[in-house]
């Protein structure tokens, strides 16, 4: 049964208690999986999350001639000795945003790329002008035509250069890095994004023989090398999945030990939860979040590039602000419109006013269960949190968004006491779930 065709049904109001593990980071894994095109060798990638975006990435690799072998649920062998550039199927590429890494990887391997423009969550305009600026700086001619992007290096060889990113962009930083690893000479990326998944991708490439320094800072230096070899590499834990579970513990007045995390990556989320009066205990590679019946203090939050409060935690945090005392403000500074989920929360009793890029959130005593939609990946996880905190039954539709980025979410939540399941209703009314 295709789980994405189902609906999530939640009976909420129970505090969640226990241990909940975090899987490998989606946004590092999609970049690293597609980066294997740069090696002409076998790589073994461990701690890969078993989620739709990774499975699509692996399908794309197979379509262009890469050999993929699942060694276990979360470990895959990728043999990119033979790759045929420029033939990734549009119907796969258009399903996720991260497919644009194919451009940088094919350029880095072949000096040319022909890729369908990416898909992904709808936050309004999602340009790739900075990616193109980087490729052109490396000596490529770039053409956009009929939903495809074609990039070609003069004489098939990219030339190292300096690139100043006008916008702090995760994808742009990684994509230029991929194109530069085998360029002639040295490339400097200035105003680079700092996200941990950029560092993880640079660490993977260096383990394959690349020469990258400065990842995680404003300036990344890439000295071109001739060839990359295979490697066995383990993906870092997913900080957004971890942050989602931290907010879940607070929203359900629970007590969750979240394991396989890097607490440092969650500093901004931890700081905000503590400001709200939630107890957060860091212990090695786990974080325990405990909230009894204590009231939640209102706070103001502004999403920023890392190490600021992550934009990918916007919807989840909004749910928690709905349960705080008084008026909180959530400002979205990364994406032009990331508040489409607010209408769904209002169906559960939320009192939110959108004022430009700011959500003014008036605290309510509790959510009331309702029938809602997952409008995108992180909004979907926010609906799950709201349903688990709500009084009564919540039904969530369009759940395929959620399974793009959260491995075994239902199983992980059931293990800590959540009354949650996926059903495949046939013409069933919401009222049937009494
Ligand atoms: C990555 O998207 C993530 N996706 C997103 O996570 C995340 O929201 C985003 O980074 C910000 O952290 C993946 O890593 C697969 P950006 P990306 O380029 O790379 C503007 C999730 O939930 N911009 O950093 O597409 C852009 O419009 C997803 O896992 C340009 O103007 O984001 C935005 O306002 C959702 N020109 C800002 O920069 C460009 O060429 C940040 O975008 C590129 C971006």
Instruction: Compute the CA-based radius of gyration.
Output: 22 Å
Class from secondary-structure proportions: alpha/beta
Helix content: 25-40%
The percentage of residues in β strands lies in 25-35%
| Widest beta sheet: strand line-up | 23-24-1-25
Number of helices: 14
Outline, from the CA principal axes?
A: globular
**Major sheet description:** 4 strands, mixed
Question: How far is the N terminus from the C terminus?
Answer: 24 Å
Low-confidence stretches: 427-434
Provide the residue-averaged pLDDT: 94
Q: How many strand elements?
A: 25
What ions, cofactors and ligands are bound? Answer: ligand EPZ
Structural description of this entry:
With 434 residues, this protein is of the alpha/beta class. The protein has 14 helices and 25 strands. A four-stranded mixed beta sheet has the order 23-24-1-25. The chain has a four-stranded mixed beta sheet with strand order 2-14-16-15, with helices on one face. A four-stranded mixed beta sheet has the order 4-5-3-13, covered by helices on one side. A hairpin with a 2-residue loop joins strand 21 and strand 22 (358-362). Bound molecules: ligand EPZ.
Key words describing this protein structure:
434 residues, 4-stranded mixed beta sheet, binds ligand EPZ
Put the structure in a nutshell.
This protein has 434 residues and is an alpha/beta fold.
SSE layout and pairings?
Layout: E1 7-11, E2 17-21, H1 26-35, E3 42-46, H2 52-63, E4 67-72, E5 75-79, H3 90-93, H4 101-110, E6 112-116, H5 129-137, E7 140-145, E8 148-153, E9 162-164, H6 170-180, E10 186-190, H7 196-207, E11 211-213, E12 219-223, E13 232-234, H8 239-251, E14 255-259, H9 267-275, E15 279-283, E16 286-290, E17 296-297, E18 300-303, H10 314-322, E19 324-325, E20 327-332, H11 342-346, E21 351-355, E22 358-362, E23 371-373, H12 377-389, E24 393-397, H13 400-403, H14 409-414, E25 419-423
Helix pairs in contact: 1-2, 1-4, 1-7, 4-6, 5-6, 8-10, 8-12, 10-12
Bound molecules: ligand EPZ.
